[in-house]
Amino acid sequence: QVQLVESGGGLVQPGGSLRLSCAASGFAFSNYSMAWVRQAPGKGLDWVGTINTGGTLTRYSPSVKGRFTISRDNARDTLYLQMNNLKPEDTAVYSCANMYGYYSKDSYNRGKGTLVTVSS
Asked: Are 23 and 78 spatial neighbours (Cβ–Cβ below 8 Å)?
């Protein structure tokens, strides 16, 4: 059974940082490109960024590029999202997903997410 469990969310002030984790199980993690997506209150799903299977390539939404960094540890089946210089508009539930491909917009599975609130 595929499981994607996110953690690390919380309340942070504007300009602050958070690191999210996504623990994967039930599938061959190292064989999949992985992505972070987010959903702000009352809005649709928004792609944040994707990392390739080996962790050597990443691509990001323009809204987070230069502030967020995606990484992965294939030995631990874990995906990370380092978020710096957070803004109130980054407030959302953040989820991880295993993707059909590095450039794909479609995912096989998505976790339930962890809430990030950016507020003073």
From this structure: yes
